User: Fold this.
Amino acid sequence: MTIVETDRIEMADDNARRLDELFELLERMTPEGFKAEVVEGAVQMVPQRNVHWQIIRKILRALENRFGEDVLVMSDVRVDFPGYENGFCPDVAKFRDGAEPDAEGRWRHEDVEFVAEVISRGTGANDYGPKKTAYAKAGVPVYLIADPYQGRCHSYTDPKDGEYRTESRADFGEQIPLTHTLLDLTLDTAKFPRD
Assistant:
């Protein structure tokens, strides 16, 4: 079977419609204090913890210090990524200057320049697995995983052909040099709390 461009567009539209329906349902069902997203068609729901939010806050602050208060950065906002029903709500997503939602109000993965995920016990395998793959396929230039259980950050850069070609690790307390990326910053993890 040969898939032509029209078939791909229809498949993408069907995927987006299914995700829209799932997220409408999730909005009504997700308890306060929980984050919900869809990873490869499976609904993932995790409680938001203090340690989780403290790390997110420090990453957001570093981005604001580097790019100014008007930097287009969001937390827990839906972005549809390549793959089967991948409606992710990244812990931190930085968009390119001038990015705007599409006609349906969705943010485009093509506009994402940086993603950070803070590991939760129940869904950490997604961050190291399917999400990392989807971010690489989408060409997200910089992907950071902060893991409060390991006390370590993993940074992934240089996406090509659906995978990241460069990976580095830094223990909490060390600095993560991202000066070679479009972020052009060094992220200090000295105050990242452990879980």
In short: The domain at 5-188 is CATH 3.90.1570.10 (tt1808, chain A). The chain has four helices and 13 strands. The chain has a mean pLDDT of 87.
